Amino acid sequence: ERRAITSGEHKALLDPFSPLTSDMKKFWEGVLSKTHQQFIERVKESRGERLKADPKVFSGLIWNGEQALEIGLIDGLGSLHSISRNVIEETNLVDYSPSEDIVKRLT
């Protein structure tokens, strides 16, 4: 038997094992709708005329770089090095990625 002990009425609000009441579903749909509208407004505001008027832009689909460029979500394609060189004029990047241990690969 599953039990949740909380100190407030909504402390276990996102518990995936508790039933979703119609009131809570309505609440979360409102939060989601408002958040989505704010996102759309910010993107339109920041991209301006560069953004294509395509209803699919805000559908939740995923776009690759070329598609994002065509739609107007980005200004261009580039790599970490090209962006650092051309945008922030930094050519001395330090790579902090962990290096692979060759001994671990062999064992």
Tell me, what's the shape? flat
Describe the sheet with the most strands.
none
Low-pLDDT runs: none
User: What is the H-and-E element order?
Assistant: HHHH
End-to-end distance = 45 Å
* Total of helices: 4
Helix content: 40-55%
Radius of gyration: 23 Å
Task: Give average pLDDT, whole number.
Answer: 90
Give the strand tally: 0
Structural class: mainly alpha
β-strand amount: under 5%
In brief:
By secondary structure, the chain is mostly helical. 42% of the residues lie in helices and 0% in strands. The chain has 4 helices and no strands.
Name its key features.
S49 family peptidase, Peptidase_S49, peptidase activity, mainly alpha, 42% helix, flat, ClpP/crotonase-like_dom_sf, 107 residues, 0% strand
Tell me what you see in this structure:
The structure is a single chain. The protein has 107 residues and is an all-alpha fold. It has a domain at 22-92. It has helices at residues 22-47, 65-71, 80-86, 102-106. The longest helix is centred in the first third of the chain and has 26 residues, at 22-47. The chain starts with 21 loop residues before the first helix and ends with a helix.
